[in-house]
Design a protein that fits this description.
Elements lengths: L1 H6 L1 H26 L2 H26 L7 H4 L8
Helix pairs in contact: 2-3
Length: 81
């Protein structure tokens, strides 16, 4: 687990920052709509928590993929295997 966290440290920090920002905005919007702090806190914690998980995987999907070196899938004459 520690290796995984180290590998993804930047994206995890970025996700945490996004999470805090999103909770703050969501709480203010929910309070403006409901006028109830308890409801706004509950809504602001639920929705951004789900969004933070989705955001992490969204970022991973958008990272450039590393393709295998051409020698792994081509013959010496440059033809595909």
């Amino acid at each position: 687990m520690s290796r995984w966290v180290n590998t993804h440290a930047f994206t995890l920090k970025k996700t945490a920052s996004y999470y805090v920002t999103h909770i703050s905005v969501a709480a203010m919007v929910a309070y403006a709509v409901t006028g109830d702090w308890q409801a706004s806190i509950a809504l602001s914690l639920l929705e951004p928590t789900v969004q933070a998980v989705v955001y992490f995987f969204h970022e991973k999907l958008w990272q450039p993929k590393k393709l295998p070196r051409p020698s792994a899938w081509m013959t010496t004459s440059g033809q595909l295997k």
